[in-house]
Amino acid sequence: MMRKRPGAEDLEAWVATAAPYEALPACLVGGCGRDWRPGSGICDLHARRLRADGLEVADAAWLDRQAPFLIVNQFSLAPLEPVVRAELLFALAARDERGQRLDPTAVRQSVAVLAGHRIAAIAAVQLGALPTRATANVDALLRETFRVVGAAFDRYNLERIRAADALLLGANSYRMFMGFWPAQAANPEAGEVHREFGEIYGRIPVNVISDSLTGDDVAQWQQQTTVIPRAPAQTYVKELKDGSDGDIVTFGSRVTWNALLVAGLVDELHLIVGANALGDGTPAFTSAANGLSLAETRRFDDSDNVLLRYTTGR
Ligand SMILES: [Zn+2]
Questions:
Q1: Ligand 1 center to residue 75 CA distance, Å?
Q2: Residue 66, pLDDT score
Q3: What is the 70 CA–ligand 1 centroid distance (Å)?
Q4: Looking at domain 150-311, what is its CATH homologous superfamily?
Q5: Residues near ligand 1 ion, CB 5 Å cutoff
Q6: What is the pLDDT of residues 166-209, one digit of tens each?
Q7: Residue 144 in contact with residue 95, Cβ under 8 Å?
Q8: Other Cβ atoms closer than 10 A to 150
Q9: How far is the CA of 87 from the centre of ligand 1 (A)?
Q10: Spacing, Cα 9 to ligand 1 middle (Å)
Q11: What are the residue boundaries of the structural domains of the chain, listed by start?
Q12: Which residues of the chain fall below pLDDT 50?
């Protein structure tokens, strides 16, 4: 027979009748897990940060940029856009493989800079133009990441666009590219490669397949832009190809090129594969692509990126 400690019977009786405290929901910051303060949606620590940012209400945009609170040797990539998360992870893995130190503080601060500026892809950003409150360590990590993921990708894309007579883009890529690239031609902070991109983007004929673009969207680049509605797009692209000696290049524009691939209007696919498996994300292909022949592979000197060039056999 077990001897009961004094008071144990009372405890059992209390447990049998007591209702548990009602659990508070977790702080709305992803991964935070601390109880929220009634009415605010966020925990005390994040509420303090919100006030420090001069805000009253934690809106979705602010929440997206926040990291959970971490102890000194932890970092989280949660606030980053998916592509940036993969890029930074890749750079950190490369650094680890070289036997170099991973500095959690520098990573945490780099995450804050990248999330704070809503960077969608490190490979496409001008790091010099980021007004970082960065320490030398953070600056070094961002530059290292950029070098590892960006340089080979950029150089190859420049090679492609140099050989192009025209660009063919979907509306989203058009807005993104034209909003950024032409201005790089005269940007003193931009590197040589990006300035040349800017120069070419400032003058090359751009064909956009879209039912949604308005006059305002294209006003700035009216001289060089042709907007083609989706319905006659295939006929248009066929004619464009027949009348063109150079390449017609598509970057991004996933919806657009997938439709053209299915229609048999794509001659080559150039895939650049980085040494990183995401495990999820948006599929590149929206339907099966059969009959591809491998025409070229290339490994870039200072990068783990590999080019796979396929012809579609048409
Ligand atoms: Zn929190």
A1: 15
A2: 84
A3: 10
A4: Dihydrofolate Reductase, subunit A (3.40.430.10)
A5: 27, 29, 32, 34, 43, 46
A6: 999 999 889 888 888 888 899 887 778 888 989 999 999 999 99
A7: yes
A8: 23
A9: 26
A10: 39
A11: 23-69, 150-311
A12: none
